[in-house]
Design goal:
Blueprint lengths: L2 E2 L6 H13 L9 E4 H11 L1 H21 L5 E10 L18 E14 L3 H67 L5 H36 L7 E4 L1 E2 L5 H4 L11 H22 L4 E12 L8 E11 L8 H67 L5 H35 L8 H5 L1
Parallel strand pairs: 1-6, 2-5
Antiparallel strand pairs: 3-4, 4-7, 7-8
Length: 447
Protein backbone atom coordinates (compact mmCIF):
# COMPACT_ATOMS: atom_id res chain seq x y z
CA UNK A 1 0.00 0.00 0.00
CA UNK A 2 1.22 3.52 -0.74
CA UNK A 3 1.42 5.81 2.25
CA UNK A 4 1.81 9.58 1.98
CA UNK A 5 3.66 11.53 4.65
CA UNK A 6 3.29 15.30 4.37
CA UNK A 7 5.72 18.01 5.47
CA UNK A 8 4.77 21.55 6.43
CA UNK A 9 5.83 23.22 3.20
CA UNK A 10 2.76 25.26 2.35
CA UNK A 11 -0.79 24.85 1.07
CA UNK A 12 0.31 23.45 -2.31
CA UNK A 13 2.36 20.70 -0.71
CA UNK A 14 -0.50 19.77 1.63
CA UNK A 15 -2.88 19.57 -1.31
CA UNK A 16 -0.32 17.59 -3.24
CA UNK A 17 -0.05 15.01 -0.50
CA UNK A 18 -3.78 14.73 0.11
CA UNK A 19 -4.70 14.29 -3.54
CA UNK A 20 -1.90 11.85 -4.26
CA UNK A 21 -2.96 9.96 -1.16
CA UNK A 22 -6.41 9.54 -2.68
CA UNK A 23 -5.11 8.64 -6.13
CA UNK A 24 -2.13 6.42 -5.44
CA UNK A 25 -3.85 3.75 -3.40
CA UNK A 26 -2.11 0.41 -3.13
CA UNK A 27 -3.17 -2.98 -4.37
CA UNK A 28 -2.57 -4.87 -1.14
CA UNK A 29 -6.08 -6.22 -1.17
CA UNK A 30 -5.55 -7.62 -4.67
CA UNK A 31 -2.11 -9.13 -4.21
CA UNK A 32 -0.94 -11.84 -1.88
CA UNK A 33 2.71 -10.72 -1.61
CA UNK A 34 4.25 -7.35 -0.88
CA UNK A 35 7.83 -6.18 -1.04
CA UNK A 36 9.10 -2.80 0.13
CA UNK A 37 11.87 -0.72 -1.37
CA UNK A 38 14.11 -1.43 1.62
CA UNK A 39 13.54 -5.17 1.32
CA UNK A 40 14.22 -4.99 -2.42
CA UNK A 41 17.53 -3.20 -1.92
CA UNK A 42 18.68 -5.60 0.79
CA UNK A 43 17.88 -8.58 -1.42
CA UNK A 44 19.57 -7.00 -4.45
CA UNK A 45 22.74 -6.21 -2.51
CA UNK A 46 22.95 -9.81 -1.39
CA UNK A 47 22.16 -11.22 -4.84
CA UNK A 48 24.18 -8.91 -7.11
CA UNK A 49 26.98 -10.58 -9.03
CA UNK A 50 28.43 -7.14 -9.76
CA UNK A 51 29.01 -6.62 -6.05
CA UNK A 52 30.40 -10.13 -5.64
CA UNK A 53 32.82 -9.50 -8.50
CA UNK A 54 33.77 -6.17 -6.95
CA UNK A 55 34.69 -7.88 -3.68
CA UNK A 56 36.61 -10.57 -5.57
CA UNK A 57 38.50 -7.87 -7.47
CA UNK A 58 39.55 -6.35 -4.16
CA UNK A 59 40.86 -9.74 -3.03
CA UNK A 60 42.72 -10.07 -6.33
CA UNK A 61 44.26 -6.61 -5.90
CA UNK A 62 45.31 -7.45 -2.35
CA UNK A 63 47.02 -10.60 -3.64
CA UNK A 64 48.77 -8.54 -6.33
CA UNK A 65 49.96 -6.07 -3.69
CA UNK A 66 51.45 -8.92 -1.64
CA UNK A 67 53.11 -10.21 -4.80
CA UNK A 68 54.78 -6.82 -5.35
CA UNK A 69 55.86 -6.55 -1.70
CA UNK A 70 57.61 -9.92 -2.08
CA UNK A 71 60.02 -8.25 -4.53
CA UNK A 72 61.63 -6.45 -1.58
CA UNK A 73 62.82 -9.78 -0.16
CA UNK A 74 65.55 -12.10 -1.46
CA UNK A 75 64.62 -14.54 -4.17
CA UNK A 76 65.55 -18.04 -2.99
CA UNK A 77 65.76 -21.00 -5.34
CA UNK A 78 66.76 -24.61 -4.75
CA UNK A 79 67.36 -27.32 -7.30
CA UNK A 80 68.60 -30.89 -7.44
CA UNK A 81 69.50 -33.34 -10.18
CA UNK A 82 70.35 -37.03 -10.08
CA UNK A 83 71.78 -39.29 -12.79
CA UNK A 84 71.97 -43.09 -12.94
CA UNK A 85 73.35 -45.39 -15.67
CA UNK A 86 73.26 -49.22 -15.45
CA UNK A 87 76.54 -49.45 -17.40
CA UNK A 88 78.34 -46.75 -15.38
CA UNK A 89 78.58 -43.08 -16.12
CA UNK A 90 82.31 -43.28 -15.58
CA UNK A 91 84.07 -46.55 -16.24
CA UNK A 92 86.50 -47.97 -13.62
CA UNK A 93 90.04 -46.52 -13.69
CA UNK A 94 92.71 -48.81 -12.32
CA UNK A 95 94.42 -47.39 -9.25
CA UNK A 96 92.11 -44.37 -9.18
CA UNK A 97 88.50 -45.51 -9.58
CA UNK A 98 88.37 -49.27 -9.22
CA UNK A 99 84.58 -49.61 -9.25
CA UNK A 100 83.51 -46.87 -11.62
CA UNK A 101 80.58 -44.50 -11.02
CA UNK A 102 77.04 -45.34 -12.03
CA UNK A 103 75.27 -42.34 -10.41
CA UNK A 104 75.79 -38.67 -9.75
CA UNK A 105 73.78 -36.03 -7.89
CA UNK A 106 73.95 -32.28 -7.51
CA UNK A 107 71.96 -30.12 -5.05
CA UNK A 108 72.14 -26.34 -4.93
CA UNK A 109 70.46 -23.35 -3.28
CA UNK A 110 70.75 -19.72 -4.34
CA UNK A 111 69.54 -16.50 -2.68
CA UNK A 112 69.53 -13.28 -4.71
CA UNK A 113 68.69 -9.79 -3.46
CA UNK A 114 68.10 -6.91 -5.86
CA UNK A 115 69.89 -3.85 -4.54
CA UNK A 116 68.93 -1.42 -7.28
CA UNK A 117 66.59 -1.75 -10.26
CA UNK A 118 66.06 1.86 -11.27
CA UNK A 119 63.17 2.30 -8.84
CA UNK A 120 61.07 -0.31 -10.60
CA UNK A 121 60.28 -2.26 -7.44
CA UNK A 122 59.14 0.86 -5.61
CA UNK A 123 57.00 1.95 -8.56
CA UNK A 124 55.49 -1.53 -8.86
CA UNK A 125 54.42 -1.44 -5.23
CA UNK A 126 52.96 2.04 -5.62
CA UNK A 127 51.06 0.82 -8.68
CA UNK A 128 49.73 -2.12 -6.67
CA UNK A 129 48.47 0.32 -4.03
CA UNK A 130 46.70 2.35 -6.74
CA UNK A 131 45.12 -0.81 -8.14
CA UNK A 132 43.82 -1.82 -4.71
CA UNK A 133 42.39 1.64 -4.02
CA UNK A 134 40.77 1.69 -7.46
CA UNK A 135 39.23 -1.74 -6.87
CA UNK A 136 37.76 -0.53 -3.58
CA UNK A 137 36.26 2.56 -5.22
CA UNK A 138 34.75 0.52 -8.05
CA UNK A 139 33.32 -2.00 -5.60
CA UNK A 140 31.65 0.85 -3.68
CA UNK A 141 30.32 2.22 -6.97
CA UNK A 142 28.87 -1.20 -7.74
CA UNK A 143 26.95 -1.05 -4.46
CA UNK A 144 25.61 2.40 -5.31
CA UNK A 145 24.68 1.27 -8.81
CA UNK A 146 22.71 -1.70 -7.48
CA UNK A 147 20.79 0.60 -5.14
CA UNK A 148 19.94 2.97 -8.00
CA UNK A 149 18.90 0.26 -10.46
CA UNK A 150 16.84 -1.51 -7.81
CA UNK A 151 14.99 1.68 -6.97
CA UNK A 152 14.37 2.43 -10.64
CA UNK A 153 12.88 -1.02 -11.19
CA UNK A 154 10.86 -0.71 -7.99
CA UNK A 155 9.28 2.59 -9.04
CA UNK A 156 8.57 1.17 -12.46
CA UNK A 157 6.50 -1.51 -10.78
CA UNK A 158 4.72 1.09 -8.68
CA UNK A 159 4.03 3.16 -11.77
CA UNK A 160 2.45 0.23 -13.62
CA UNK A 161 0.44 -0.82 -10.58
CA UNK A 162 -0.99 2.67 -10.14
CA UNK A 163 -1.72 2.95 -13.85
CA UNK A 164 -3.73 -0.25 -13.46
CA UNK A 165 -5.76 1.45 -10.76
CA UNK A 166 -6.47 4.39 -13.07
CA UNK A 167 -7.64 1.95 -15.74
CA UNK A 168 -9.88 0.12 -13.27
CA UNK A 169 -11.39 3.38 -12.00
CA UNK A 170 -12.19 4.56 -15.50
CA UNK A 171 -13.45 1.13 -16.49
CA UNK A 172 -15.98 1.33 -13.67
CA UNK A 173 -16.95 4.83 -14.82
CA UNK A 174 -17.50 3.67 -18.41
CA UNK A 175 -19.39 0.58 -17.24
CA UNK A 176 -21.79 2.80 -15.35
CA UNK A 177 -22.13 5.14 -18.34
CA UNK A 178 -22.65 2.16 -20.68
CA UNK A 179 -25.48 0.85 -18.49
CA UNK A 180 -27.07 4.30 -18.54
CA UNK A 181 -26.84 4.41 -22.35
CA UNK A 182 -28.42 0.95 -22.66
CA UNK A 183 -31.32 2.05 -20.47
CA UNK A 184 -31.80 5.22 -22.51
CA UNK A 185 -31.62 3.29 -25.78
CA UNK A 186 -34.23 0.80 -24.59
CA UNK A 187 -36.42 3.73 -23.62
CA UNK A 188 -35.97 5.19 -27.10
CA UNK A 189 -34.39 8.39 -25.77
CA UNK A 190 -31.08 8.17 -27.65
CA UNK A 191 -29.75 6.86 -30.94
CA UNK A 192 -27.75 3.62 -31.04
CA UNK A 193 -24.58 5.41 -32.15
CA UNK A 194 -24.27 6.94 -28.68
CA UNK A 195 -24.21 3.47 -27.13
CA UNK A 196 -21.60 2.43 -29.67
CA UNK A 197 -19.46 5.45 -28.81
CA UNK A 198 -19.24 4.32 -25.19
CA UNK A 199 -18.54 0.73 -26.23
CA UNK A 200 -15.70 1.85 -28.50
CA UNK A 201 -14.10 3.87 -25.69
CA UNK A 202 -14.54 1.00 -23.27
CA UNK A 203 -13.00 -1.50 -25.73
CA UNK A 204 -9.99 0.74 -26.20
CA UNK A 205 -9.60 1.04 -22.44
CA UNK A 206 -9.78 -2.76 -22.04
CA UNK A 207 -7.10 -3.13 -24.71
CA UNK A 208 -4.86 -0.75 -22.79
CA UNK A 209 -5.66 -2.67 -19.63
CA UNK A 210 -4.44 -5.91 -21.22
CA UNK A 211 -1.26 -4.26 -22.49
CA UNK A 212 -0.61 -2.73 -19.09
CA UNK A 213 -1.02 -6.09 -17.34
CA UNK A 214 1.50 -7.71 -19.70
CA UNK A 215 3.91 -4.84 -19.14
CA UNK A 216 3.55 -5.27 -15.37
CA UNK A 217 4.25 -9.00 -15.60
CA UNK A 218 7.39 -8.37 -17.64
CA UNK A 219 8.55 -5.62 -15.29
CA UNK A 220 7.88 -7.87 -12.31
CA UNK A 221 9.95 -10.67 -13.85
CA UNK A 222 12.78 -8.24 -14.57
CA UNK A 223 12.56 -6.93 -11.01
CA UNK A 224 12.54 -10.43 -9.50
CA UNK A 225 15.54 -11.58 -11.51
CA UNK A 226 17.57 -8.49 -10.66
CA UNK A 227 16.71 -8.45 -6.96
CA UNK A 228 16.96 -12.20 -6.58
CA UNK A 229 13.50 -13.01 -5.22
CA UNK A 230 11.13 -15.68 -6.43
CA UNK A 231 8.84 -14.49 -9.21
CA UNK A 232 5.19 -14.42 -8.29
CA UNK A 233 2.46 -12.91 -10.46
CA UNK A 234 0.65 -11.62 -7.39
CA UNK A 235 3.63 -9.71 -5.98
CA UNK A 236 3.22 -5.98 -5.44
CA UNK A 237 5.72 -3.21 -4.76
CA UNK A 238 4.64 -1.75 -1.44
CA UNK A 239 5.64 1.88 -1.79
CA UNK A 240 5.95 4.51 0.90
CA UNK A 241 6.11 7.94 -0.70
CA UNK A 242 7.90 10.59 1.32
CA UNK A 243 9.64 13.94 0.95
CA UNK A 244 8.14 15.44 -2.16
CA UNK A 245 8.78 18.92 -0.90
CA UNK A 246 10.67 21.18 -3.35
CA UNK A 247 14.28 20.01 -3.76
CA UNK A 248 15.50 23.46 -2.69
CA UNK A 249 14.13 22.74 0.78
CA UNK A 250 15.78 19.31 1.01
CA UNK A 251 19.15 19.66 -0.67
CA UNK A 252 21.65 22.46 -1.22
CA UNK A 253 22.28 23.30 -4.83
CA UNK A 254 25.43 21.38 -5.87
CA UNK A 255 28.56 23.55 -5.81
CA UNK A 256 30.49 21.26 -8.18
CA UNK A 257 33.20 20.59 -5.63
CA UNK A 258 34.36 17.17 -6.78
CA UNK A 259 36.50 16.34 -3.76
CA UNK A 260 35.21 13.05 -2.42
CA UNK A 261 33.36 12.23 -5.64
CA UNK A 262 34.15 8.62 -6.50
CA UNK A 263 34.38 9.20 -10.25
CA UNK A 264 36.71 12.15 -9.68
CA UNK A 265 38.86 9.97 -7.43
CA UNK A 266 39.13 7.39 -10.21
CA UNK A 267 40.28 10.08 -12.62
CA UNK A 268 42.99 11.12 -10.16
CA UNK A 269 44.06 7.51 -9.66
CA UNK A 270 44.39 7.10 -13.43
CA UNK A 271 46.81 10.05 -13.55
CA UNK A 272 48.96 8.58 -10.79
CA UNK A 273 48.91 5.12 -12.37
CA UNK A 274 49.94 6.50 -15.76
CA UNK A 275 52.84 8.40 -14.17
CA UNK A 276 54.02 5.23 -12.43
CA UNK A 277 53.86 3.31 -15.72
CA UNK A 278 56.19 5.90 -17.24
CA UNK A 279 58.61 5.59 -14.32
CA UNK A 280 58.66 1.82 -14.70
CA UNK A 281 59.44 2.14 -18.41
CA UNK A 282 62.32 4.50 -17.58
CA UNK A 283 63.57 2.06 -14.94
CA UNK A 284 64.11 -0.53 -17.68
CA UNK A 285 66.76 1.79 -19.19
CA UNK A 286 68.76 2.05 -15.95
CA UNK A 287 71.40 -0.37 -14.64
CA UNK A 288 70.30 -3.02 -12.15
CA UNK A 289 72.50 -4.49 -9.43
CA UNK A 290 71.95 -7.58 -7.33
CA UNK A 291 73.96 -9.65 -4.85
CA UNK A 292 73.52 -13.21 -3.71
CA UNK A 293 74.94 -16.36 -2.20
CA UNK A 294 74.95 -19.89 -3.55
CA UNK A 295 75.68 -23.29 -2.04
CA UNK A 296 76.16 -26.55 -3.95
CA UNK A 297 76.87 -30.14 -3.11
CA UNK A 298 78.10 -32.63 -5.72
CA UNK A 299 78.72 -36.33 -5.25
CA UNK A 300 77.83 -39.94 -5.90
CA UNK A 301 75.97 -42.45 -3.77
CA UNK A 302 77.89 -45.60 -2.74
CA UNK A 303 81.10 -44.73 -4.55
CA UNK A 304 84.69 -44.08 -3.63
CA UNK A 305 84.28 -40.38 -4.43
CA UNK A 306 83.16 -38.34 -1.45
CA UNK A 307 80.64 -35.54 -1.86
CA UNK A 308 81.90 -32.00 -2.38
CA UNK A 309 80.30 -28.86 -0.84
CA UNK A 310 80.92 -25.46 -2.36
CA UNK A 311 79.67 -22.05 -1.20
CA UNK A 312 80.12 -18.71 -2.89
CA UNK A 313 78.92 -15.11 -2.95
CA UNK A 314 78.34 -13.13 -6.11
CA UNK A 315 77.15 -9.82 -7.49
CA UNK A 316 75.59 -8.99 -10.84
CA UNK A 317 75.41 -5.74 -12.75
CA UNK A 318 73.15 -5.44 -15.80
CA UNK A 319 73.24 -2.44 -18.13
CA UNK A 320 70.61 -2.44 -20.93
CA UNK A 321 72.72 -0.48 -23.41
CA UNK A 322 70.81 -1.36 -26.59
CA UNK A 323 67.51 -0.25 -25.00
CA UNK A 324 68.85 3.32 -24.81
CA UNK A 325 68.18 3.73 -28.52
CA UNK A 326 66.04 0.67 -29.24
CA UNK A 327 62.72 -0.72 -28.03
CA UNK A 328 63.20 0.52 -24.46
CA UNK A 329 63.42 4.14 -25.60
CA UNK A 330 60.28 3.75 -27.71
CA UNK A 331 58.42 2.20 -24.79
CA UNK A 332 59.21 5.23 -22.64
CA UNK A 333 57.94 7.48 -25.42
CA UNK A 334 54.70 5.50 -25.63
CA UNK A 335 54.15 5.77 -21.88
CA UNK A 336 54.77 9.52 -21.94
CA UNK A 337 52.23 9.92 -24.74
CA UNK A 338 49.75 7.78 -22.82
CA UNK A 339 50.30 9.93 -19.74
CA UNK A 340 49.42 13.02 -21.77
CA UNK A 341 46.31 11.28 -23.14
CA UNK A 342 45.29 10.39 -19.58
CA UNK A 343 45.69 14.04 -18.55
CA UNK A 344 43.42 15.14 -21.40
CA UNK A 345 40.86 12.45 -20.51
CA UNK A 346 40.93 13.68 -16.92
CA UNK A 347 40.06 17.22 -18.03
CA UNK A 348 37.18 15.94 -20.18
CA UNK A 349 36.05 13.66 -17.36
CA UNK A 350 35.90 16.53 -14.87
CA UNK A 351 33.82 18.62 -17.28
CA UNK A 352 31.44 15.71 -17.85
CA UNK A 353 31.08 15.10 -14.11
CA UNK A 354 30.24 18.75 -13.46
CA UNK A 355 27.74 18.76 -16.31
CA UNK A 356 26.10 15.52 -15.14
CA UNK A 357 25.77 16.80 -11.56
CA UNK A 358 24.27 20.10 -12.73
CA UNK A 359 21.89 18.31 -15.09
CA UNK A 360 20.72 15.93 -12.35
CA UNK A 361 19.94 18.93 -10.12
CA UNK A 362 17.84 20.71 -12.74
CA UNK A 363 16.19 17.41 -13.68
CA UNK A 364 15.15 17.03 -10.05
CA UNK A 365 13.82 20.57 -9.81
CA UNK A 366 11.93 20.14 -13.09
CA UNK A 367 10.52 16.78 -11.95
CA UNK A 368 9.05 18.43 -8.86
CA UNK A 369 7.51 21.18 -10.99
CA UNK A 370 5.99 18.52 -13.22
CA UNK A 371 4.37 16.92 -10.18
CA UNK A 372 2.87 20.27 -9.20
CA UNK A 373 1.60 20.95 -12.72
CA UNK A 374 0.26 17.41 -13.08
CA UNK A 375 -1.63 17.75 -9.81
CA UNK A 376 -3.18 21.03 -10.89
CA UNK A 377 -4.06 19.58 -14.29
CA UNK A 378 -5.68 16.54 -12.68
CA UNK A 379 -7.81 18.72 -10.42
CA UNK A 380 -8.96 20.80 -13.39
CA UNK A 381 -9.64 17.70 -15.52
CA UNK A 382 -11.73 16.11 -12.77
CA UNK A 383 -13.68 19.31 -12.28
CA UNK A 384 -14.21 19.51 -16.03
CA UNK A 385 -15.48 15.91 -16.04
CA UNK A 386 -17.90 16.69 -13.23
CA UNK A 387 -19.22 19.75 -15.05
CA UNK A 388 -19.62 17.84 -18.32
CA UNK A 389 -21.42 14.99 -16.53
CA UNK A 390 -23.82 17.43 -14.91
CA UNK A 391 -24.39 19.15 -18.26
CA UNK A 392 -24.93 15.81 -20.01
CA UNK A 393 -27.36 14.61 -17.38
CA UNK A 394 -29.19 17.93 -17.73
CA UNK A 395 -29.23 17.70 -21.53
CA UNK A 396 -26.99 20.76 -21.97
CA UNK A 397 -24.13 18.90 -23.73
CA UNK A 398 -23.66 15.81 -25.85
CA UNK A 399 -22.10 12.43 -25.13
CA UNK A 400 -19.00 13.25 -27.16
CA UNK A 401 -18.14 16.12 -24.83
CA UNK A 402 -18.56 13.81 -21.81
CA UNK A 403 -16.36 11.09 -23.30
CA UNK A 404 -13.69 13.64 -24.17
CA UNK A 405 -13.79 14.95 -20.62
CA UNK A 406 -13.50 11.39 -19.25
CA UNK A 407 -10.47 10.67 -21.46
CA UNK A 408 -8.93 13.95 -20.39
CA UNK A 409 -9.39 13.10 -16.72
CA UNK A 410 -7.94 9.62 -17.23
CA UNK A 411 -4.91 11.08 -19.00
CA UNK A 412 -4.41 13.62 -16.21
CA UNK A 413 -4.49 10.88 -13.57
CA UNK A 414 -1.90 8.88 -15.51
CA UNK A 415 0.31 11.91 -15.95
CA UNK A 416 0.31 12.57 -12.22
CA UNK A 417 1.46 9.01 -11.51
CA UNK A 418 4.16 9.30 -14.17
CA UNK A 419 5.30 12.64 -12.78
CA UNK A 420 5.54 11.31 -9.26
CA UNK A 421 7.50 8.17 -10.09
CA UNK A 422 9.72 10.25 -12.39
CA UNK A 423 10.49 12.51 -9.42
CA UNK A 424 11.54 9.51 -7.36
CA UNK A 425 13.87 8.33 -10.14
CA UNK A 426 15.38 11.79 -10.62
CA UNK A 427 15.96 12.08 -6.90
CA UNK A 428 17.89 8.80 -6.64
CA UNK A 429 19.93 9.82 -9.72
CA UNK A 430 20.81 13.15 -8.10
CA UNK A 431 21.89 11.43 -4.89
CA UNK A 432 23.95 8.95 -6.88
CA UNK A 433 25.78 11.56 -8.93
CA UNK A 434 26.51 13.70 -5.90
CA UNK A 435 27.65 10.73 -3.76
CA UNK A 436 24.89 11.23 -1.19
CA UNK A 437 23.51 7.68 -1.26
CA UNK A 438 23.34 5.87 2.05
CA UNK A 439 24.96 2.51 1.32
CA UNK A 440 26.23 -0.33 3.51
CA UNK A 441 29.98 -0.78 3.91
CA UNK A 442 31.84 -3.32 1.83
CA UNK A 443 32.82 -5.18 4.98
CA UNK A 444 29.17 -5.75 5.90
CA UNK A 445 28.53 -7.22 2.44
CA UNK A 446 31.27 -9.80 2.87
CA UNK A 447 29.33 -11.56 5.63
Amino acid sequence: MIHIKSHNTGIKSVQLFSVIGMILLGFHSSFAQQITLEESQKAALKHSNAIKNGLLTIEKSEAFKKEMVANYFPNVEASAIGLYAPNDLISPIEGILPYGIDNLYNASATATEVIYAGGKIRSSNALADIQLETSQIRAEQAVDSVLVVTENKFWQLVQLQEQQKVIETNEAYLDELLKQQQDLLEAGLIAKNQLLQVKVNRSELLLNKSKLENMRKLALLDFSLYVGVAYARDMVADANFENIAPPELKYPEPDLDLNGNSNYMLLEKSITASSLQTKMAKADLLPSFAVGVSAQEFGSVDSSISSQFTGLAFGTLSIPISDWWGSGKQKVKQERIQEEITQNNRKDGIDQLKLAITQSWYDLVNAHEQVTYALENKQLAEENLKVNRDNYDSGLSGLTDLLDAQAMAQNAQSNLINAYTNFENKEITFLYRTDQLVAPSLESLKE
